[in-house]
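Structure in, sequence out. Go:
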């Protein structure tokens, strides 16, 4: 408290990811970012703090350069302090040390290029995902303080109200500024009286939160700007007993004894610690405890961590692992390495109250760096750590030896994973959906093979009721042979056919050509019998179709605007099902149905070890 007034640090973080739809980013800019700054202009004595993420900074410079000039002017007038961050809004703890430091340093370079040579002393930590060594990373890069939640402070065994902290890692000391839980959850939603009564007796309070709530959240633009609530709230707080301050001014007036020492283990904010838990854990919590009890004890109940997302969502883990490997290999290739850093943008690797990893176009965006790296791989088979790549002239396959399948088909001409798919997964909030939901029991890779009893209808397939008689999709396939344009995998397994358990072998050879992929199957000891079928599934990008189709033939074609046309040819006639696959995920408080992929099922009768080939041609 200074001069009898409670000091308020008002800090906003605004961000839109690389790869977001332009009209979506523009709508958020017009509803939240611009009207907020326009409102703040009317209050010259209300100082505030702002972090603009790297992707959004680049977008604003191109679309609204006058907004950049307005930000510069407010900073030069010393009523706005700008905060640093990571180049692509990456979650730092999941990155290697080298990539962390590149992210931090490159943001400073980008900031200086676009905004200017303003001092950056406070750091915006993406999703406030904290591990102890972050203190050293930030200090090396020239930062003195960051914002963390009361959750972090409680995990460090302390209480956060009216306190500041210092933490240390390898003799690097960083100031921790606790975010006020009440202010974060209630500002700017509540009326002036509620805000004032709850804060007026505190020495200081910190609001550090996402700027999207200042207009983009449902109903907030009308409430804050058309009904003038934000202006009224700022006026009332100023007139009463609050002084809005910049974070550096606030810290610089403090003495050594104003800081308590603290060690903070891994943590993030409560909601992130909730979203990163496994669905079954959350279902148990809410089945045993009423919602009010959970709400009042979030720090105790929610114990997840961001790394869990790579287990919950294997699709996220694969893109992340490829990025890590390629970042080490291509660190000295400026073009490739920059794309890899951009692809570390956090939004596509997790899921909480927004779509995240569930959004196909965001998965496309975070895979772009990997595609640039794959273009540089030598032709043929590349085994790097635990990943297997097959590089062709104009595309690269990422193979999954579990199931002998293809996880990614990265087309170089369009910088697109043609097999971008996402499996149906249990989420804890699905109990709010009254209709029946069904889930996949394997990843939606392509050329996943099945032996089935009869041909099921598309609805039965979606319900996993297709008479599975073998589980080669869950077995480890081995590499039999390879050269610069082909790799052959094989598996030995058992199947239940005609009341008997039979041993069989499948060899599957991927043959690469210019704009084509041929997959040749050879079977051993596969009996010829009625009502049993070999079925393989190919999961194409969601843009390729949205209607259920069932037909017999040896060829079909898929088309999509701005994407390559695809022709699939089969060496003998098959029963073909084309089925769109949908997931159900939350957006704010609403459930969204999102089309994840367009699945082709190819059914062929078992028999006499007959060979089979399937060819995918990219037509443009």
């Amino acid at each position: 408290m200074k001069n009898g007034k409670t000091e308020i640090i008002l800090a906003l973080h605004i961000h839109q990811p690389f790869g977001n739809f332009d009209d979506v980013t523009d709508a958020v800019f017009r509803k939240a970012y611009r009207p907020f700054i326009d409102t703040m202009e009317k209050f010259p004595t209300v100082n505030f703090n702002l972090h603009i993420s790297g992707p959004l900074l680049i977008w604003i410079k191109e679309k609204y350069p006058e907004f950049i000039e307005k930000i510069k002017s407010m900073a030069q007038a010393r009523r706005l302090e700008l905060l640093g961050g990571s180049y692509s809004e990456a979650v730092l703890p999941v990155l290697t040390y080298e990539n962390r430091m590149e992210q931090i340093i490159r943001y400073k370079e980008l900031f200086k290029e676009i905004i200017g040579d303003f001092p950056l002393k406070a750091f915006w930590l993406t999703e406030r995902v904290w591990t102890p060594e972050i203190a050293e990373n930030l200090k090396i890069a020239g930062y003195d303080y960051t914002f963390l939640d009361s959750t972090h402070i409680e995990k460090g065994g302390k209480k956060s109200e009216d306190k500041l902290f210092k933490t240390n890692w390898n003799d690097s000391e960083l100031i921790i500024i606790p975010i006020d839980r009440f202010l974060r959850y209630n500002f700017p939603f509540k009326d002036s009286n509620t805000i004032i009564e709850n804060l007026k007796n505190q020495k200081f309070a910190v609001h550090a939160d996402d700027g999207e709530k200042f207009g983009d959240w449902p109903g907030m633009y009308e409430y804050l700007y058309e009904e003038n609530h934000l202006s009224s709230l700022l006026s009332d707080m100023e007139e009463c007993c609050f002084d809005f301050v910049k974070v550096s001014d606030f810290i610089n007036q403090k003495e050594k004894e104003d800081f308590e020492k603290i060690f903070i283990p891994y943590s993030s904010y409560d909601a992130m610690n909730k979203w990163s838990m496994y669905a079954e854990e959350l279902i148990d919590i809410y089945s045993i405890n009423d919602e009010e009890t959970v709400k009042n004890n979030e720090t105790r109940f929610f114990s997840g961590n961001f790394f869990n997302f790579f287990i919950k969502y294997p699709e996220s883990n694969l893109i992340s692992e490829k990025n890590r490997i390629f970042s080490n290999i291509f660190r000295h290739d400026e073009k490739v390495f920059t794309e890899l850093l951009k692809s570390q943008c956090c939004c596509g690797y997790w899921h909480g109250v927004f779509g995240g990893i569930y959004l196909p176009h965001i998965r496309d965006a975070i895979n772009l760096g990997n595609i640039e790296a794959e273009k540089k791989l030598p032709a043929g088979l590349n085994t790097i750590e635990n990943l297997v790549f097959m590089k062709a002239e104009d595309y690269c396959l990422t193979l999954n030896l579990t199931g002998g399948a293809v996880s990614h088909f990265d087309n170089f001409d369009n910088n697109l994973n043609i097999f971008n798919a996402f499996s149906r997964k249990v989420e804890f909030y699905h109990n709010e959906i009254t209709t029946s939901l069904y889930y996949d029991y394997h990843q939606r890779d392509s050329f996943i093979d099945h032996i089935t009893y009869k041909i099921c209808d598309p609805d039965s397939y979606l319900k996993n009721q297709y008479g599975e008689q073998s589980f080669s999709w869950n077995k480890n396939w081995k590499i039999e042979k390879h050269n610069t344009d082909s790799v052959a995998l094989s598996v030995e397994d058992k199947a239940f056919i005609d009341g008997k358990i039979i041993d069989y072998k499948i060899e599957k050879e991927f043959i690469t050509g210019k704009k084509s992929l041929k997959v040749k199957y050879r079977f051993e000891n596969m009996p010829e019998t009625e009502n049993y079928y070999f079925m393989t599934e190919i999961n194409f990008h969601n843009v390729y179709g949205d209607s259920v189709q069932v037909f017999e033939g040896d060829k079909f074609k898929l088309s999509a605007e701005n994407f390559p046309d695809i022709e699939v040819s089969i060496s003998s006639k098959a029963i073909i099902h084309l089925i769109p696959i949908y997931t159900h995920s939350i957006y704010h408080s609403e459930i969204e149905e999102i089309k994840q992929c367009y699945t082709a099922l190819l059914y062929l009768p078992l028999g006499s070890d007959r060979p089979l080939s399937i060819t995918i041609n990219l037509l443009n």
